[in-house]
Amino acid sequence: MSEVDYSENDMFLSTLKEYLESEEAEDILKHLEPSRLSIVYSDRFTGTRWNQRSAYVDIKVPVRSKKALEDKSLFHRLSRYCSELYENTEEYGYAGLRIGVLVGIPTTSTESKDIQFYSKNQVYENLRTKVHNSTLDPIEEMYLLEACACAINGQRLSAVTMLGCAAEQLLLLLSRSYLKFLQNHGSENEIKKFNDNVVEAKKAHARLDGFKRTVANQEKLFENLGLENSNLHFQYLDFLRQIRNESGHPTGVRVSEEDVNSLFVNYQLLIDRVHPLILSLPNANPI
User: Fold this and answer.
1) pLDDT value for 107
2) With 50 as the cut, is the pLDDT of residue 174 above it?
3) In DSSP terms, which residues pair with 92 in a beta bridge?
4) Distance, first Cα to last Cα, the chain
5) Of residues 4, 67, 63, the one with CA closest to residue 38
6) Cα–Cα distance, 244 to 159 (Å, whole number)
7) Residue 180 reports pLDDT greater than 90
8) Residue 262 · residue 40 · CB < 8 Å
9) 80, exposed or middle or buried, with CB in 10 Å at 0-12, 13-18, 19+?
């Protein structure tokens, strides 16, 4: 039995929380603060597909929350949400949810709140440092540094808007990279269709939707190039696009400090995972 690495677990948990919030499942979401999630791969067969093994979602929460989440109604709903997010493959399929105890969580105090605030602010500093130490596209870098500055100053709407602009540029870079892959291995029709409908798309949502449809069967290719569970990353890009649109227009939307913190943590994962993919895709061999 093995686990995916921490970054993928963190991405899944963040997406799960965002999904619960969008579904207005506050009765579940309130029990996931704090929490730790692991996707555990088992040798046990699922029995639903030939030679497919089981993947379990393990969520550890404080003692006070464990009993609440083990309630039959909450447990089945949370398991359903996890099942909807987990992307089944030929090798592994979602087999269930397991709730455990998160050890070592301090009680609420003024001191712990101060530590929590420092940790959240540190996320923005960490991303800014990563940007400075990386060779990124200048447009993406510009928006990321602006996003970090806004977040550190508590300007959450501006921070999310700038982060969304950086993500839009990242998607464009990824689309151009995949176009180069198609130019080496695709047909003329595939190349033209992808260029017209994705790379040259007028709207970010059209580019993202077109990209996801085109690469839906390329999970193995992305895994070989270091991007596992690529659908989770694309879901994050879509969520960030939506919240950027809401934050950048007079909708009256409010973005919590926790939401901003989560978005910035996940963008660091994109830098670690998607940028190497952008560089390697043009020279990759099809699978």
Assistant:
1) 40
2) yes
3) 53
4) 27
5) 4
6) 9
7) yes
8) no
9) exposed
- Residue found by looking up tokens 């029995």 in the block: 47
Which residues pair with residue 97 across a beta bridge? Answer: 57
Residue type for 35, please? S
| Burial class (CB within 10 angstroms; exposed 0-12, middle 13-18, buried 19+) of 19 | middle
Give the Å distances, CA to CA, from 286 to 9, 158, 186, 219: 28, 40, 10, 11
Beta pairing partners, 100? 60
Residue pair 176/208 in contact by the 8 Å Cβ criterion: no
What pLDDT sits at residue 99? Answer: 94
Q: Which amino acid is at 143?
A: Y
Between CA 103 and CA 35 the distance in angstroms is 10
Whose CA is closest to 216, among 203, 226, 199, 230? 230
| Highest-pLDDT range among 69-73, 237-241, 265-269 | 69-73
pLDDT number for residue 7: 58
